[in-house]
Amino acid sequence: DAEVRPLLAAAACRDPRASFARDDAELLVAIVIETLLEAESAQPGSPQLLAWHDLCGALHRGLADAGLPGAKYAGEDVGLARKLLDLFDRWLYALSLQEERPDWVFLRLPRPLDFQQLVPLRRPRADRPEILAGHEEHQRRRDGFRLTDPRMSAREVRSEIDYCIYCHEREKDSCAKGFAEKDSPRYRKNPLGTPLTGCPLEERISEMHTAAREGDFLSALALVCIDNPMAPGTGHRICNDCMKACVYQKQDPVNIPQIETRVLSDVLRIRWGFEIWSLLTRWNPLRFERQHPRPYSGVNVLVVGMGPAGYTLAHHLLNEGFGVVGIDGLKIEPIAEHLIAGPIERIDDAFGAALDERVTSGFGGVSEYGITVRWDKTFLDILHLNLARRTHFRLYGGTRFGGTVTLEDAFDRYGFHHIALAAGAGKPTVIGLKNNLIRGVRKASDFLMALQLTGAFKKGSLASLQVRLPAVVIGGGLTAIDAATELAAYYPIQVEKLLDRHEKLCESAGEEMVFSVLDPEERHIYAEALEHGREVRRERERAAAANDEPDFARLVKAWGGVTIAYRKTLNDSPAYRLNHEEVIKALEEGIAFAEGLSPVEAVPDSHGGVEAVKFTLRGGGEVTLPARTVCVAAGTSPNTTVEKEAPDRFEVDPGHSAFRSFRIENGKLVPAEVTDDLTGAIGFFTSHSSGGRYVSFFGDNHPAYAGSVVKAMASAKDGYPHIARLFAHQLERADGSAQPVWAALTARLDGDLRARVHEIKRLTPTIVEVIVRAPAAARGFQPGQFYRLQDFETLAPEVEGTRLQMEGLALTGAWVDRERGLLSLIVLEMGSS
Description:
Distance between the termini: 52 Å
CATH topology of the largest domain: FAD/NAD(P)-binding domain
Mean pLDDT: 90
CATH architecture of the largest domain: 3-Layer(bba) Sandwich
Helix content: 25-40%
Number of strands: 28
Radius of gyration: 29 Å
Low-confidence stretches: 14-20, 71-75
Shape: globular
Strand content: 15-25%
């Protein structure tokens, strides 16, 4: 109660007789105005008039204490309130017109929405009108990879809650249910052509606001968790479908994601807050269908992929009484045992590390490796722990479906009753760019994964991710936006880290030796990076001396900058249409946008590395942009790799390049329609059927739900009941007595899927043989296969500030002993890893 009371008080905070912080002018002005408004219409002897007299007395005492002349207002006619209100009104209006006005919430007015001008822009170059940039006064300085968005304050969120008109009371809450077309099951579209579907999870948004308005954030979170128990995975800087469909269609919408994240964060940060949220995911008194989980039924599901769709599906299936085994191709870091075994009193004690020091866990799929530090990835650790505590959940990283575990293995060897594919997006789109394989050209998704999964942005990381400036990112989606901002933020870190290590090498071996191992091209690149590193250091020293923030965006721009090149206009780009706020944030970090440019050729330099990109202009002609790094973000296709590895098992829909979707009716697979707005009867099953056992698919694998984190999570919420219906008889009869079934399954999986180092042999001074015990990998061994070998960050020692964590090494198998489950890998000692 002592923890929740401040939240209630913050919601009220209207008593003019309360004590104020002397510097909280915003709150004082708001309370004075509210008291004036109440006094203006107050009856003699009413509490409102008494409050007015008290306020007048306080004003008089304040003037007297400050030695300023002033009359005593207490007891005056209420007409004085009207005069003061008029003065306040004029003063606030004048204040709102000033450029240096205070950032008070009641000085912010909803702005009209012009869908063709959602992003403030300028064209900085008269000779290059296709180049767009943000306004100088909006530039935001960024230093590294700590959380870049601190989110709204409690007062700002309170203002957004008050801005809502609580449409659920009239069943007009389009933020949750979408804007339906009149006399049609389809949804309206906004002027940019985006369907106004509302929240894909159909979260009870207006109800949440009603509870939060009273400061009852615990009830507000319980309302959220009815439809969105995995709420840490959504919210601010993740999804905005609710805002797009807000009832305010001609002015700024309510910032619902900010409210949702604030509700969650405030509960998490009270004492035992994590345990309260975790309990709500399992037992929610407001979930009328069933408040608590079913007992374990003995029915086990293999969930392939632990991204947003996978972890959400795992949660819902666990609550239905299934045993769930998750596998993921990424390395999944282990969670500290004490966090699993015991309760967490304070969330910051367990998950308080800054994002640039946080262990990259691998859990969360695209939320981990694709989304940038605009979003607090501590939420992924919270979600991971919540699942890891479940008795009938087990997760295995470094395990690829179709390789380590095949379709036959899952059904026949391990006895799974169902397989759910939530493997995310597949291969990136290859564009028709001449020389697209030369050095310096890479896929944007590859860059983001290499940056975020290896921890290359950390000061103590050994990961060798190299980028150069100027840089060009080709594409117009959110991946292009993210790649551009992270590239611009990473380059100063890269050169600063290189300079630090160069100086240490020179102390021990001398500069001549350092340069002697480099070829002419490498010497040039190395010298360039050292000079840039010195400039970064000087800027950091300047900022420290001036008590200022370093302006690395200015340096990056001077070195050529980062430009996003898109074949259409900015307004036509997916990033603008789906989430223009991210475009604004990118421009604030100094990113440029070049519109109407279609890439033709990556131009190589004399050493074979990229030095420029040729484009054709939309209006005719050609333009060449200098580029030492090129990232291509041209979209992805659904992940159907398993169909290629096990041909004729799955039907593929050529129209969507995804698995063909089916529903099960009367025990038979029936083709289902795919729509872009989640209307109609959606199918969640693939064509595969074997002895009454089926394979379902979710998230980016599913064409109806592809494209965003929240839609992936919605696929799990919408799809899990279809799986549950297949096993309704077993689930209803479950009494928890099938525990031995689970124990036997997990014991077998632990033995097969948990790889362990068996022996290490040094064959030569630079060649090492690593023999690994990995029975499942050994069983599926084929000549020419590559294996990824890497260690765990949580277990890697740190020496003089450097974490001895290696990047994933691509190794071939030398020999295999299937009976003993042994696999030999040959490592050549090259580079720091």
